[in-house]
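::Amino acid chain::
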Amino acid sequence: MATFNVPYVTSNSSSWGPPPKEDDTSSSSTNAPISRFEDLPYAPFGRSDRLGRCADFTTQSFARTGDATAGYFRGRTTRNDANKNLEFQYKVDSEEAKEFQLVDSSNVRAAGAQGGGPPGGKRFVPQARKRAQNAARMRQLNARRDNQNNNAAGVGRFNQPQRTRAGGRGGRGGGRGGFGGRGGRWHDRIDRQASVSVRPDWRRVEDIDLAKLSKGTSPLSNLVDNSSPKGVEDLAFAGFLDQYNDQYDKVSTRTPAPLKRVETKEFYPVTTTDDPVIEKLAIEGKGTVFATDAILAHLMTCPRSIYPWDIVVQKLPTGALFFDKRDASQFDYLTVHETSNTPPAPLGNRDNEEDQINTPERLSLEATMINQNFTQQILRSQKHRSNFDLPNPFWDEEDNDGMEPASVAYRYRKFDLGDGVLLVARTELHGLAKDNKKVDTSKIALPGKKKKKKQVEVEEEQGDQYMTAYALNEYDPSFASNAPPARPGTTINWREKLDNQPGAVLASEMKNNSFKLAKWTAQSMLAGASQMKIGFVSRINPKNAYEHTVLATQTYRPADFASQMTLEMGSMWGIFRLFVKLLSDQPEGKYVIMRDPNRAIVRIYGVPMETFEESDEESEEEEEDEEGEAEE
C-alpha cells in the first residue's frame, strides 16, 4: 500500500514568505523551498510603480540555466527600494512614440510686465514671433531626438496638451476654467427622451432651426411677414369672472399668506377640437385656423423651449387647420427652471425622498397645482362676480359631483393675419381688477383752498380691467441632495430679497424660467388683458412639497413685461405664420410638430389619420374598468 509523505514546510517567524537562506536549516535538502527557488528572479512589489508586464522572460541576459544567471539576478532581487520592479517597469514603445511631437507648454511671461520697460535691458519681442521661435525650437528637439537611439527604454516625446471635449474655456478639468470654472458644468449632460416616438410610417416634412428662427436668419423667415394682425374681433364670451382681492397686493415676506387648496373648483384644459364653441364657429365659417391661447403662445415662444414637446395639427378638406394637443401629453403641466443653468435632475435610481420631490416631473405637478390654487385664492367671493352671456361650455350642471367651475372667462377672438388667414382662438381671463392710476393733486384746484406747492400723488379708481394671474414657485437647486454646486449669483433667496430687491428676483426668474414667462406674457396679450398678476409662492419647508405660502404679488402690464423679456409681438406672429404657411402647402391629413429632445430643432411630420386615436372598444374597456374600480 502506497504511503503519503508530508512535504517539508519551513517556518518563518520573522516575516511573510520563505525565510532567508541563512535561517533555513534544511537548505541541503532538495525539497527545501530555498534550494528549489534560490536562483529565480524576484522583485519586491511597489504599489506606486506602474507595471508594464507581470514577468519578463524575453530579456537577452536571461538563460534557462540557473547557475549561469544567478549572479545577474542576484543583484536585482535584493530588497532595496531603489531596485523595485526594475525589470518590470513600463517602457514607452519607440515606434509608437514617433507619433507625438514636442511642444512648448510653459507659460510665457510677457516682457515688461513689471516696471516701465523690458526687465534686464532685454529688447521687446512680440508674442507672435516668440511663439514661432518656440515652435521652431521644439521641432529641432524632436528631430534631434529622432536621430538618437530609438530603442532606448523610456525615450519618448513630450506629451502635447490634449484638447478634449471637456477642456477649453470652461471645460471640465482642462483649459481655462477647469472644474467648475468659467462656463464650466459640474453635472453630466442629460439625454432626454422625445415626447412621442417617431414611427417608421411617419413622413418628415420640414426641419426648423430654432436658433436661426429666433434671430430671424432662417431661410424660412422670408416666407412670412413679421407684423401684428391687421384686425382683432371678439366673437363670444363665456363663463364668469370674480373680482381681485386687493389685500394680496400687501402680502410680503414679513406678512405672508398661506396658500390654500381649492378642492371644489374644476379646471378644464380642453383642446381645440373638443371645444363646442369653436366647433360652432368653424361650421359658421368664421375662420381658417383654429387654436387655443396655450397652443398659440407655445408655438410663438418655442425658440426659448428646452424640454421636448409635440402638437398635433389636422388639415381638413376645406383647408382649415386645427392645432390640438394630445390627451396623454404633458402639455398643460408647467415646467420649473427649464432654461436654468442648473435644471432639476431626473431621479434615476436614487431612493432619497428629498430627491423624489425635486425631479422635473414632481416639480411640474407641484407648479401646476400651485398655479391653479393661486388663481382662485386671490379672488373675492361670488358677491363680486360678473357673468357673461354664455355659461361655461365645459361644465355639466347635472354631473358636477359637488364641484363648480373655476373663475375663468373664455374670450373667443378672431385675428386677421393677412393673405386670407383668419385665426380663431380661445383665450382665457382669470379675473377683474381695478385700474388704480396715480393722479397729481397739485394740479387740481380744490374749491376754497389754495393749490399747494408740494406734489402729492393719490390713487384714483377707474373701471374694471381684465386680468390674468399666474404663480411662480421658488426652487433652489440645493434642495436636492444630488444637485451640483450653484454658481455665485445664480440663485436668490426670495425671503431675503423679495421685499427690498424685487427686480433682482424677477430678473433671476426671467433667466431660469424664460420659456414659461414668455408663454404667460403671450397668453395675456392674446386675451387682451390689461394687467398680469404674478404671485411668488414658496415652500414652508424645503422638504415638504405640499404646504406653501404666498410671499408677494406683483402687477405688470403685459406689453411692458414683454419689452423687459425682449419679446417682440411681431416676431411671435411671424413664427406662427411660418407654421401656418408650411402646413397650408401640405395635402389634407394629420401632422405632428415636435421638438427634438436634445437639439434646438423643431420637426414637422406627416402621420396617418389614425395616429393617436383610440378605438371605440378601447374607450369602452377603459370606462368599464373605471366604473368597476369606483364600485369597489
About this structure: The mean pLDDT is 76. The first helix runs from residue 33 to 36. The chain has 15 helices and 17 strands.
